[in-house]
Amino acid sequence: MAFISNGTTVATSGSLQNVPAPTSSQVTSAIIGLSVGAVGSFGLLAMHASPETMNPGATKGGGNLEFCTVGGNHTDTTTQGGTWRIWGHAYNSGAQQKGSFFIRIS
User: Fold this and answer.
1) CA-based Rg of the chain, rounded to a whole angstrom?
2) In this structure, what DSSP letter does residue 28 have?
3) Beta bridge partners of residue 84, listed in sequence order
């Protein structure tokens, strides 16, 4: 089965064809339009529970993450919703805590 849009075949047998990639401007506008904590948004977060270590690519429920400063200090105790993927390293030893860069994936 083929899907045709404006006379152009855009999908056959489950594969997309002839579909242009979004422009840099479209991607930038989409990111800028995200609200804090929305799926696709980014955050500097620290783990709420200890002891724990996270490595790049790991995921964590938002209820275990809090916004933090670059040094990993909590700015408040508000946890996040959804699921987040870490893009760096983070740990919480109880005595010392380091945050990292996360993206919300769901």
Assistant:
1) 19
2) H
3) 60, 104
Residue-wise pLDDT for 53-91, tens only, equals 889 999 999 988 888 888 777 766 677 889 999 998 888
Cα(22)–Cα(34) distance, rounded to whole angstroms?
A: 17
Instruction: Provide the phi-psi class of 95: left if phi over 0, else alpha when psi is between -120 and 50, else beta.
Output: alpha
How much is the pTM? 0.70
| Residues 30-61: b if buried by 16+ CB within 10 A, e if exposed | eeeeeeeeeeebebebbbbeeeeebeeeeebe
d(CA 58, CA 8): 40
Looking up tokens 């401007």 gives 25
Provide the token pair at 97.
């805590």
3-class DSSP assignment, residue 26: helix
Give the residue from 81, 38, 31, 36 showing the smallest Cα distance to 60: 81
- Distance from chain centroid for Cα 85: 6
